[in-house]
Amino acid sequence: MAPPSRSARAAVLASSVQRSKPVPRPSQARRAFIRRAVVVVLVLAALTLLTVSFRSPTAGALHDVQGVGSTALRPFQVAATRVAEPFRDGYNYLHSLSSAKSENARLKKQNAALRQAAIIASARAAKYPQVLRLLHFEQGPTFPKDYRAVNAAVLSSPAGPFTHTLEIAAGSSSGLRINSPVVSGAGLVGRVSNVFPDTAIVTLLSDSNSFVAARDLQTGVQGGIRAGPSGTLALYEVKKQLVVKKGDEIVTDGTRNARYPDIYPYGIPVGRVSSVGASDTATFLQVQVQPFANLGSLDAVAALVPTKPRR
């Protein structure tokens, strides 16, 4: 028997090695088709139910089915609500806490602004009585004639018990000059001792170098106001035979001679007699005077400037 040829063996081998193409299993294709069909059916059913639900009356078989489904699902809904409730409460608490902090910060800021406004208003109100009394004094009968008032704020008060000067916010540009009288709404304060263009230094009545020719308004007794012990005022050079009583009002005496005008015009209130004493060996009475002006607490004063030039 002759051996098969080489070509025949190659053909046989090629035919045995060649594989056929894989054919999809009928079960897999069927499963994919079933899944697609189920999705389509569910979508169509949902659309149908929605349409029927909107178009159906409030009562009927569909609504009964919905009621049964709702009843069946209610336990799950209650359970879900109870599970979510702590998280919801925690969120509400954090939100409320954040809102409370923001509101607290806003209220603190508003309270600080109101407190500052109240302090400013109180500070202005504290100065109002002095300014009002000063206005009344300028319009009153005791305001000296032939003078005009230059109102000025007090920039600095006496720094201590041994300081008897203050600085005011008016100067030579407003007509002030050396020895211009300075008053408050209550009475005489002192005189200008140094002047600048926009400010001036005022020496108070309590200064040891101050002197004011004065008169007892009730008895007509004349004397001189000087600083007494501990910064008090005293009416000096009042003879013992003259009558001065406690409570008498003391005013500036001025002068009757136009050629030698006094620093202070006549009639400015100075103070009230607080005590009267005498000793056997003294020639003059010891008359203590309480000034009308509060020399240690002044917010506003007025410098008196002549309206007519002096000859």
Keywords:
311 residues, alpha+beta, Thrombin, subunit H, 6-stranded antiparallel barrel, 3 helices, 12 strands
Molecular structure report:
With 311 residues, the chain is α+β, with helices and mostly antiparallel strands. Among the domains are: 109-198 and 295-311, Thrombin, subunit H, CATH 2.40.10.340; 206-292, Beta Barrel (Thrombin, subunit H). It is 39% helix and 23% strand. It contains three helices and twelve strands, in the order αααββββββββββββ. The protein has a six-stranded antiparallel β-barrel. Strands 6-7-8-11-10-9 form a six-stranded antiparallel beta barrel.
Kindly, what is the distance between the CA atoms of the first and last residues, rounded to a whole number of angstroms? 173 Å
Structural class: alpha+beta
- In the CATH hierarchy, the architecture of the domain at 109-198 and 295-311 is Beta Barrel
The total count of strands amounts to: 12
Give me the strand/helix succession: HHHEEEEEEEEEEEE
Shape: rod-shaped
Write the layout of secondary structure elements.
Blueprint: H1 6-17, H2 26-55, H3 61-139, E1 147-156, E2 165-168, E3 181-183, E4 188-195, E5 200-204, E6 212-216, E7 222-227, E8 233-236, E9 249-252, E10 269-277, E11 286-291, E12 300-306
Antiparallel strand pairs: 1-2, 1-12, 2-5, 3-4, 3-12, 4-5, 6-7, 6-9, 7-8, 8-11, 9-10, 10-11
Describe this structure in a few short sentences.
This protein is an alpha+beta fold and 311 residues long. The chain has helices at residues 6-17, 26-55, 61-139; strands spanning 147-156, 165-168, 181-183, 188-195, 200-204, 212-216, 222-227, 233-236, 249-252, 269-277, 286-291, 300-306.
